[in-house]
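hey can u run this one w/ pyridoxal-5'-phosphate bound, need the structure tokens asap thx
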Amino acid sequence: MAGIQLFKAKYEVEECLAEIRECLEVGWTGLGFKTVQFEDAWKNYTGLPFAHYTNSSTIGLYLAVDILKEQYNWNDDDEIITTPITFISTNHAIEKSHMKAIFADVDDSLCLDPKSVKERITDRTRAVMYVGMGGNMGNYYDIVKICEENGLKLILDAAHMAGTRHGGVIPGKEAEVVVYSFQAVKNLPTADSGMICFKRGELDEIVRKKTWLGINKDTYQRTTNSGNYKWRYDVEYVGEKGHGNSIMAAIGLVQLKYLDRDNAYRRQLAGWYREGLKSCGDKVKMVRIEAGCESSCHLFQICVDKRDELMMALNAEEIYPGVHYANNINYRMYDYAKGTCPYADYVSEHTISLPMNMYVTYEDVQRICDIIKKFVSGEKGTNGAYI
Ligand SMILES: *Cc1c(COP(=O)(O)O)cnc(C)c1O
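ok here u go:
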């Protein structure tokens, strides 16, 4: 791929291959073995009490809502307050369980605005779905407090947050459930997989059944345990085929070792962008990072006028940023909420995510910042380009 991409995963190739080789030699690529090792490694890394490895974060989010709904006897059309600025999985998880996504507005962290969340609470509200945008935490702890005060459950979509810390600690213990993504472009890339981390052990047990068609026994155990009746198992739910496998977990185990190193470099890149764009003042609004948050810096987002033109100007230089995200309310499925989240409308039209990956260099950042600076000051070269 030529040019500078928004995302480009960096793998520790030899180590990943060695770990995968072990699966192939042992003859076990499925559920169990490396998936269990990765779950243990993740619990160890995050300090969260439970972790179940899934084949995507989307299925994790779906099951998070499904299980909480069942557990707490929520009804169809009960409400979950959520953000319009996210990947669509977040909100589909609510609809999938026949609940109602109620959109609150975001603030300058691009995470949910606590004030707007409060305004949306009704007697049908059961939970808040919070997304740590770009790995940042926004006013997460205010949302935790609002949930406590109003008897709401907190679901944390931590797809961007692998490695994010606050005061040196990985956040998430406050939430009823935390769901991570290890999809191909996330900070801990595998190819596709995720982790669902319930606060309560009973719910962790349920999700293990639900990701395996509702079956209540682990395959690997059945093939390794001696004794009778190992073919006998019960089926308790109409579950999903949603568990992770040992090949993905093998990659995850290796990449986890490098997550903090990689995130430190991402923070370095973010620092260079901030420094490089400082002189633009209000013309380039940089996303707010709250005090005490050591962000995973999955994204580095700015808001500018004429966003689409800036995108073209960068593309002309073979620089390929992205947009996170188009306001979900603009999608047909969710347009019942049109006009209710003005800041999300603004973000949707003005935000741009600058290249953030292990291959971006200091010189790349300088070049990108130069183009942006010239663009916002309206300066063009003789060829009409912003260089
Ligand atoms: C990537 C992403 C997801 C979905 O993750 P998958 O592992 O691809 O299913 C969910 N929420 C957010 C905010 C994401 O960025």
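The two ends are 22 Å apart (CA to CA). anyway lmk if its weird
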